[in-house]
C-alpha cells in the first residue's frame, strides 16, 4: 500500500519528545498464539488441581470470593450462561466444580474481569515456578526496549492481565528476566483499557504530560481511548492479530516492529497518526476520526468491565 508508506525521516519523530512508553502485551510484545494456545489452555487444564491443592490458602479463598461476587452480579444483570458459585460454607467439591465452570465460561467469552485475571495469574505463577511455562516475546521487543531504556525513556505495561501475571511473563521469557527494563505495571484495577480516564490516571501516576507518553497496542479501541486522554498512540501489526480497517490506517500510526520506533526501517509501511506522534501536520488530513463512534464524555467504568483483547 504505497499511499500508506511513511518515510524514515518522518519515523524519526516517533520517540522525539517521549518521556514514557506504555506497551500492551497480547499482540504487541507477545504473540496472540502464546496467550490463546499456551497460557489459556494451561489454566483450563490445571485449574481444578490448583484449586483442590490450594483451597485452604487465604489467597485462593480471596480469589474464589471475588469470582463468587462477580457471578452474583452477573446473575443479577442476567448474563446468559453465568455459573453461580455456592456460599463459602458449602461443600468443597461443589464450590470447586462451580469455580471451574465459571472460569471456563468467562474464558470462552474472552472476558477480562479482574477476578478472573487474578486467579489466572496465580495459576500461571505456579506454572512458571515449576518451569512448565516460558513466556514468548517477538524477537524485536527485548533489544529495542533495552535501547529505549538506555536513551532515558521509562517503560511501563498496561494490560488486562493482572500486574502479577505481567511481571511473571517478563521475568520468564526466552530472552531471560527483563523486569529491570520496566518502571511500572498497570492492570484493570486502574480501569478499562478502552476508557480514556484509565490513561489519564496512568499519566498522573507516572508524572508525565499526556503528550510525552507513547502507547503501543494492537487494538484500535484502546488507541482511541489513549488519544482521547491526550497520549500519543501507535498500533502494532503482528502475525495473528486482527486485520485492521482502512479507517485505522488513515488515522493511526501503524508499525510492524519495535525497530520502526527509531526510524531505521525505511522499507516498512507506516501510517499516521494518533495524538501528535511527531512532526506531521494534522491539518493535512483533517480532524481525527472517532473510531468507536462515541463522544469524549467520560463514562463510569465498573472494575470488571470487559476490555477488547489482551492478556
Sequence stretches where pLDDT stays below 50 over 5 or more residues: 1-11, 265-311
Determine the mean pLDDT. Answer: 85
The fraction of residues assigned to DSSP E strands is 5-15%
Main sheet: which strands, in order across?
Answer: 3-2-1-4-5-6
Shape descriptor reads globular
Backbone CA Rg: 20 Å
Distance N to C terminus: 31 Å
Number of continuous helical runs:
10
- List the helices and strands in order: HEHHHHHEHEHEHEHE
Q: Helix coverage percent of residues?
A: 25-40%
Biggest sheet: strands, sense, closure?
Answer: 6 strands, parallel
The structural class is: alpha/beta
Strand elements, count: 6
Question: Which labels suit this protein?
Answer:
311 residues; alpha/beta; 10 helices; disordered N terminus; single chain; 6-stranded parallel sheet; disordered C terminus
What is the structure about, briefly put?
The protein has helices spanning 8-11, 32-54, 58-76, 92-108, 114-129, 141-150, 163-171, 196-205, 220-228, 246-251; strands spanning 20-23, 154-158, 184-186, 213-217, 232-236, 253-255. It has 311 residues and is α/β, with parallel strands linked by helices. Strands 3-2-1-4-5-6 form a 6-stranded parallel beta sheet, sandwiched between helices.
